[in-house]
Amino acid sequence: MLSSPPILWLGGRDVGSGSAFFFFSAYVVVINMAGFLAFAWDKHCARNGLWRVPERTLLSIAAVGGTIGALVANEPCVTKRARSRSGRICF
Q1: What is the percent of the chain where pLDDT is above 70?
Q2: What are phi and psi of 63, to 5 degrees?
Q3: Pairwise CA distance, residues 9 & 7, whole Å
Q4: How far apart are CA 79 and CA 52, in angstroms?
Q5: pTM to 2 decimals?
Q6: Within 49-79, where are the H helices?
Q7: Quick one: pLDDT band at residue 86, thresholds 50, 70, 90?
Q8: How many whole angstroms from its chain centre is CA 82?
């Protein structure tokens, strides 16, 4: 009996359809890292008066799965901070 051909050949091993979880996980990690880096770079440019990342690019990265990375980058990289009466930092 002939076995079905592998879907993808990757580094000396055959990767079949059972590895969909691996590819999905890798995609989520990569797109969230890209979202984090894009939002952090935009905040850096805003602080230093440089050309900023277009909002369309930032929102596109967030829309295709980089929302968690974007939210994580937003907190430590806040450009404008205001103190409330209690002394806590808020938006």
Answers
A1: 62
A2: -70, -30
A3: 7
A4: 13
A5: 0.63
A6: 55-61, 67-74
A7: low
A8: 27
